[in-house]
Amino acid sequence: MNEEELRKIIARNLAFYRKEKGLTQAELAEMINYSDKSVSKWERGDGLPDVYVLTVLAGLFNITVNDLLSPEEPRPPKKKKRILSRRTSVLIPLLASGLSWFVGTIVYFVLRLLSDEIGRLWLVFIYTAAVSDIVLVVFSHLWWSKPLSCTFVSILIWLAATCVYLTMQLESVWLIFIVAAVLQVLALLWYVYLAGRRKNKQ
To answer: How many CB atoms lie within 10 A of CB 131?
Structure first.
């Protein structure tokens, strides 16, 4: 690769990453303490920025110096994933779960005020437990480990079966637990499959 080819490559890549960042030549020049004429000259391929400037530009665009020198077509830089702190990834799900219990308690209280008979009002808390577990299932899939996620899915299966059993007062409704057992086996097999896939990728 001769100097002229290198100038063309840097010119193309510099223009691409500048536009990707949404900057004008003047704005970029100001950020690196150079004139806009210098940036224009680099992007036309009439000159080369020095090594220090290349390093500054790479840091600014969130890429490597190699990306600026690469003859391959430039690609948008990968966005950094926001990493949640361990405390946040625990507190948010617990707050969301606690909120579902709060709502469940309010519902129980309102129903208790509207009716003198307690009857089966306690079922509200069984349903609340199921809703709370759904929240934990969602967050465990997003932030927590697969075994923990599998645990919450299993709890949800049995809570859902319990809700159906306690709500429907039919003679053969106990069969719902057989359905739950089959679902439990399928859930376990699914998580074993996911764990195997993850191992293969590594």
So the answer is: 16
Burial (0-12, 13-18, 19+ Cβ within 10 Å), 95: exposed
How is 127-147 classified by DSSP, letter by letter?
Answer: HHHHHHHHHHHHHHHHHS-HH
Look over the chain and give the mean of its residue pLDDT values, rounded to a whole number: 86
Q: Tell me the pTM.
A: 0.55
Alpha-carbon gap, residue 104 to 126, rounded angstroms: 9
Would the pLDDT of 81 be above 60?
A: no
Distance CA(104)–CA(125), nearest Å, equals 6
Residue located via tokens 């927590």: 144
User: 185 pLDDT exceeds 60?
Assistant: yes
pLDDT confidence band for 202 (50 / 70 / 90): very low
With the CA atoms of 162, 165, 167 and 169 taken in that order, what torsion angle do they form, in degrees rounded to the nearest 10? -160
Q: Are 49 and 42 in contact (CB under 8 A)?
A: yes
Structure tokens belonging to residue 36: 């806009």
Is residue 7 within 8 Å of residue 48, measured between CB atoms?
A: yes
